[in-house]
Structure formats: structure tokens, C-alpha cells
Automatic annotation (TrEMBL):
<dbReference type="GO" id="GO:0016616">
    <property type="term" value="F:oxidoreductase activity, acting on the CH-OH group of donors, NAD or NADP as acceptor"/>
</dbReference>
<dbReference type="InterPro" id="IPR057326">
    <property type="entry name" value="KR_dom"/>
</dbReference>
<comment type="similarity">
    <text>Belongs to the short-chain dehydrogenases/reductases (SDR) family.</text>
</comment>
<dbReference type="GO" id="GO:0006633">
    <property type="term" value="P:fatty acid biosynthetic process"/>
</dbReference>
<keyword id="KW-0560">Oxidoreductase</keyword>
<dbReference type="GO" id="GO:0048038">
    <property type="term" value="F:quinone binding"/>
</dbReference>
<feature type="domain" description="Ketoreductase">
    <location>
        <begin position="11"/>
        <end position="182"/>
    </location>
</feature>
<dbReference type="InterPro" id="IPR036291">
    <property type="entry name" value="NAD(P)-bd_dom_sf"/>
</dbReference>
<dbReference type="InterPro" id="IPR002347">
    <property type="entry name" value="SDR_fam"/>
</dbReference>
<dbReference type="Pfam" id="PF13561">
    <property type="entry name" value="adh_short_C2"/>
</dbReference>
<protein>
    <submittedName>
        <fullName>3-oxoacyl-[acyl-carrier-protein] reductase</fullName>
    </submittedName>
</protein>
<dbReference type="InterPro" id="IPR020904">
    <property type="entry name" value="Sc_DH/Rdtase_CS"/>
</dbReference>
Length: 255
């Protein structure tokens, strides 16, 4: 019978961008289920603080600041996690950016901003999947990519971001085919969430109201409301779900 509990005791979870916003909520949610969680990002102090939050909940952790766009750093991250724990059960590719310089009409967006966004959101996610692949296959684990509603439908003036998130959904589906039945690979596609990434939007009253008008739930999500479906997808309760993209958007793109 399927295990209907959310008990990740003795399991090892790596969360990229696990120090702030959605990633931090994912880190704390897994730690609350008993997992050993390794939250990483580029900022040493934030990584130390997130690691301490895991330890306060009784889990073991490791502080390994990592820029996911640096393939050598990513390789080192997974080697170190394997060396310490001897296993990896879940990887959450959450690190992502939407640079302000890459917002606007296509002809105004610098091609270098396009590269920068791809290098973090898409190439970084692939590097992590590659780095963790053999460990996930050994544990029968799970990979979860944090995409976006922008990975499912078009959004104006966010071309690099939307292109990378569509790519991430495609990567999810093709990895799911190659790694089945050993590793399940899924994506979560949030709508707007209250984090640093959306500070600029919430400060623009007209834009904020316009987005709320488009959202039947009439509010942005709390990061915990994205973390909960991520933990579900990693759990035994989702044992027959793979290659799926779960939209969590308060009804925004519901037809
Ligand atoms: P935040 O900006 O609040 O946090 C982003 C996290 O990623 C930080 O921990 C940041 O740490 C880390 N990060 C950024 N660049 C890198 C990098 N190159 N290498 C490693 N870590 C990095 O973002 P959110 O929490 O809002 O977003 C998290 C994910 O959710 C992203 O993939 C985003 O696209 C997606 N998303 C967010 C939505 C929203 O409305 N907020 C909606 C839909 C999807 P540091 O800067 O210290 O490296």
C-alpha cells in the first residue's frame, strides 16, 4: 500500500536557491518532515543561515554556496553531498532569475541578458540534474523543477524568462522519459508569489491590481503554498506521477 505519510526521515534533499523566497519555504518544509536538507545559493551568509534553520529542526545539512550557472561548482556540490550522506533522494531546481534588464519589448532586450537568464534558469537546472542523476537513480529518487506559469503560456515583455521556463518544462518531460521508472521528474509552475522576485510588481499599484484582477484567488501565493505541492510530488503519495507540470496559480490561467 502507498505510504500516505510525509516522513522524509534519513532522506537527503538538495534545494537550489534554497535560501530565500520559495526555495527557503521548500527547505523548511522538507526539514519539517525530518529530511536532511542542503539549501544552496550564491550568498555565503544566506546559505549559513538556511543551514542553521535546517539544523534547528533536527536535520543535518551542509553549507556549500553554489552558483548554478557554474558547472564546476555544481559538480562539486553533488560530490560533496554524496561524500557526506552517501545518497541523494530529492533535488529541487528552484534557483531562478528574471533580470529587470530582460523585461520589455523584444527589440529592447539585450541578447546578453537572454544568455544570463538561460544560464541560471535552464542550463543551471540541467547541470544539477546531470550532477545528481546517478545518485537519484541509485536511491529511486525524484527531481522537481520550479518552472512558472510562464513555462506554460506566453507572458508579454518577459521573453528570456518565459523561454527558459518553457524549456524547463520540456526538460522535465524528456528527463522523465529517460529516467523512468527509477527517478520521477516533475515540474511545479507557480503563478505570482510574494517574494523578493515580485517586489517590483507589488510596488507598482496599477500592475499589482491588474494581476490580482486576473487571479481568481485575488492574491499572490505565499511561498509555503508552493512548497506544499513540491513536498507532495517528492513523496510516496505521488509515486505514479512523472513528467507532469503542476500549475499552482490561484486559478490564473484556468480557462
Ligand atoms: P527569489 O529572488 O526570492 O529567490 C531566488 C533564490 O535563488 C535565492 O535564494 C537566490 O540566492 C537564488 N539564486 C539566484 N541566482 C542563483 C544562481 N545563479 N545560483 C544559485 N542560486 C541562485 O525568487 P523566488 O523565490 O520568487 O523564485 C524561486 C523560483 O520560483 C525561481 O525559479 C522563479 O523563477 C520561480 N517562480 C517565482 C514566482 C514568483 O512570483 N515569485 C512565480 C513563478 C515562478 P542568491 O541571489 O543569494 O544566489
Amino acid at each position: 500500500m502507498t505510504d500516505m505519510t510525509l516522513d522524509f526521515s534519513d532522506q537527503v534533499v538538495v534545494v537550489t536557491g534554497g535560501t530565500r523566497g520559495i526555495g527557503r519555504a521548500i527547505t523548511e518544509a522538507f526539514a519539517a518532515t525530518g529530511a536532511n536538507v542542503v539549501p544552496t545559493s550564491r550568498t555565503d551568509a544566506d546559505v549559513t543561515e538556511a543551514v542553521e534553520a535546517v539544523q534547528e529542526q533536527g536535520g543535518e545539512s551542509l553549507a556549500i554556496p553554489t552558483d548554478v550557472s557554474d558547472k564546476k561548482a555544481v559538480k562539486n556540490l553533488f560530490v560533496q553531498v554524496q561524500d557526506k550522506f552517501g545518497r541523494i533522494d530529492t533535488v529541487v531546481n528552484n534557483a531562478g532569475i528574471n533580470p529587470m534588464g530582460a523585461l520589455g519589448r523584444p527589440e529592447a532586450i539585450d541578447v546578453d541578458e537572454f544568455d544570463r537568464t538561460i544560464n541560471v534558469n535552464l542550463r543551471g537546472a540541467f547541470a544539477c540534474a546531470r550532477g545528481a542523476g546517478s545518485a537519484l537513480q541509485a536511491s529511486g529518487g525524484s527531481l522537481i523543477n520550479i518552472a512558472s506559469v510562464g513555462g506554460v503560456v506566453g507572458i508579454p515583455r518577459q521573453h528570456p524568462y518565459v523561454a527558459t521556463k518553457h524549456g524547463l518544462v520540456g526538460l522535465t518531460k524528456s528527463l522523465a522519459l529517460d529516467w523512468a521508472p527509477d527517478v520521477r521528474v516533475n515540474a511545479v509552475a507557480p503563478g505570482y508569489v510574494t517574494t523578493d522576485l515580485t517586489d517590483g510588481i507589488r510596488e507598482n499599484e496599477d500592475l499589482y491590481q491588474h494581476l490580482l484582477d486576473q487571479t481568481p484567488m485575488d492574491r499572490f501565493a505565499d511561498p509555503d503554498e508552493i512548497a506544499a505541492p513540491v513536498v507532495f510530488l517528492a513523496s510516496e503519495m505521488a509515486s505514479y506521477i512523472t513528467g507532469e507540470c503542476l500549475v499552482v496559480d490561484g486559478g490564473w490561467i484556468t480557462e
